[in-house]
Amino acid sequence: MGGHKEQDVARQAFDVADAVPLLLDPHGTVSSWTGGAERLLGYRPTEAVGRAFAELLMPDDAERMPDLVERCRSEGDWAGLLTTRHRGGRPVAVMVRITATVRPRGRSPLLVLLSEVDGATGWDMSRPVLEQMVTGASIGIAIVDTDLRYVWSNTALEQFGGGTAGQRLGLRFADVQPGLDAEAVEERMRHVLDTGEQVVGYQHVGRVRSAPMRETAHVLSFTRLDDEQGRPMGVYYTVVDVTERHRARQRLALLDRAGAHIGRTLDIERTAQELADVAVPELADYVAVDLLETVLRGADVQPGPSTASGRVPLRRAGQRSLHNDLPRAAVETGTVLSYPSDSPPVRCLATGRSWLQERLDPLHPAWAMPPGGRESTFLELGLRSAMIVPVRARGVTLGMTAFFRRRHDPFDEDDLHLAEDLVSRAAVCVDNARRYTRERNAALVLQSSLLPLHLPDQAAVEVSACYRPADELTGLGGDWYDLIPLSGARVALIVGEAPGYGIDAAAAMGGLRTAVRTLAALDLPPEEVLAHLDDLVDRSAGDEGAGPEGTYGHPVGTGCVYVVYDPVDGKCTMAAAGHPAPAVIAPDGTVSFVELPEGPALGVGGPPFESVELTLPEGSTLALHTDGLLLPPDRDGAYDTNRDRLRRALESAAKPTLELSCRAVVDALVPTRPYDDVALLMARTKRLDPGHVAAWDLSADPAVVAEARRTATGQLARWGLDELIFTTELVVSELVTNAIRYASGPVRLRLIHERTLVCEVVDGGATAPHLRHPRAMDEGGRGLLLVSQLAERWGTRFVPGGKIIWAEQSLTAPPE
């Protein structure tokens, strides 16, 4: 007989009333043997229990047995004809039904019903056997009629509450289990009655009468019962408690979600908030994460909290509430709360051990008290159960996390273990964020010490700068800019770019910036400044064993442009070392680029540096930038194309202030996450009022010294600087005398009234004067010593055809 036809016949003829029950374990081994089975097949219990059921079948059917078991597990059950082997060796044809005791899918025990084909009679003959099987089963079993009222249930169903089997008779599911969703359960029962389709493995979560304070999970399976004419008689269903398995899945899902959502950033408060968000509502109704102040600052944490004042301050770093009236409405994130030194949260901080209270004292004040607030009781807050878990990582306690429930089911030890797992994961992330905050703060201190916080005040240019590092985490980079006041009201503008990224590049940049400021103080021309820098970088690379290529973290390969602007005559001199030439925005808004020879990068060797000089109209704007500003989004654009992009950005960046224009250019050309460090320095040129500059040509005759003094004092009187006449007379006298005595050719005296009073004497000498410290009996050598005492600054700079000795004096008020 074919397989499907055989199974159909078996289903039609099979009568469970005469069936002999067997129980197989998940591997198909006989685990229970009844007297009926012994009468049918002749084996005693000691001979059958422990043997594979397939061994009791004839060879052909024994081979089929594994497939039949798998079909049962996948389709719910299996019924058909098999030939067993009697103990005496003769074949016995039987009808067989195999059913999973709990659910068809998985490794559940199997119930096997055997009925001999010949002589099978009806229900009345074997009903005690069937009743014995279902009544003594360990799983809950019940039968409801077509009105869904109980007509029978076994003893195992009583473990879920709702009364005995007799007390259930005539009641509906909602009458027996009011804490469950009876409507959903009865909907499945009606579906089974209407369609005859079996519903297997329906999971239901709720509160049964045997455990009204805690949610439990159950798996139900429903099968329709028909009479001899095939008419529905009712529904037969089974119930298995799977609460532990359900809660284990919930814990695993919660831990999995915690791994995906906690610690996505290196922000301490964001991480604390992520912990609270993950734990509500699956674990708690309200979660608060309070951390020590030192943690939020990124500082090292002391071994234990200070309790000298009787209360311990903690800052609310994150919280989440399931209900609007819980403390979230009264305490904002970031608030500093104080806890009594003897409270459970502080004890957890001190000991590093968790604390669980299944039932809070409703009249006890809540531990946290906001500034200026009053203590609320747990009854007022509606909190019933609590857990406190210290936030502890790498042996250090960073704070604590409080879990609260308003529900009737209190926290238990399993909940505490789960909370500890969650907090331990978050604690590592919080500590990582704390360490990152500490390192980033240190890096930012370094960066702020290397870049000028404020560009110095001066009258030569109006200036603004914008810096954007490629390393957005640390904010560090190798690009830098600077403005250095020089003698004679001039200024030096510098933009440079050290190779590499991060703290190594920033350190290299800091050394270069210091060297540039030192060289600028010598009043050297731009090409000589770069030549000295090149020698310095080359020696530094040799001392540290760095090669000329790939020297990450070293200044070798640094690009730099150095510009000197003189506001007296508008002359601008510049030189570059492996760096883009500045752009010039004319007063009418047109943009051009300086034709500046791009010398070799510092430290790599090459031809000498060259400088160019041009005269800028007043109101022109110099735009000095690093090459990061020229990089297009695709990073492969041609150089000319990149300069065109910069040209358009400069032309369209006309804003009310130079600072806004500078930012507009960077925003237009640089993405949010730049490919390279970017620095832009924009300087709008000014001209000194000609009335604040006075110059005189003097002959090389000692007699002109007195005339120079009178001329200078008269000019100071016209400028209203009478308070400086005496000191200026002495300075002019000494400088002019020194020039006539030691130099050759004509002498020129110039006074500049700017933010300081500058006195300059130009001569044709090629040697710089030296400050001497004469002895008491020496007749001379006190001139420059006197100048150094009277002037705020003094020095020498060389110009074509000679040198300039200058001295600056402070003004009580800037010129009008």
What characterizes the major β-sheet? 6 strands, antiparallel
Structure classification: alpha+beta
Specify the oligomeric state: single chain
**Measured on Cα atoms, how large is the radius of gyration?**
47 Å
Shape estimate = elongated
Fraction of helical residues: 25-40%
Q: DSSP strand (E) fraction?
A: 25-35%
- Spans of 5+ residues with little confidence (pLDDT < 50)? 9-13, 120-126, 545-552, 775-780
Strand order within the widest beta sheet: 13-12-11-16-15-14
SS element count, helices: 21
Arithmetic mean of pLDDT: 83
Query: What is the number of E strands?
Result: 32
The separation of the N and C termini measures 119 Å
Structural overview:
The structure is a single chain. The chain contains 21 helices and 32 strands. The chain is an alpha+beta fold and 816 residues long. A hairpin with a 5-residue loop joins strand 9 (216-226) and strand 10. The chain is elongated, with a radius of gyration of 47 Å. The chain starts with a helix and ends in a 6-residue tail after the last strand.
Give structural attributes.
816 residues, alpha+beta, six-stranded antiparallel β-sheet, six-stranded mixed β-sheet, 32 strands, elongated
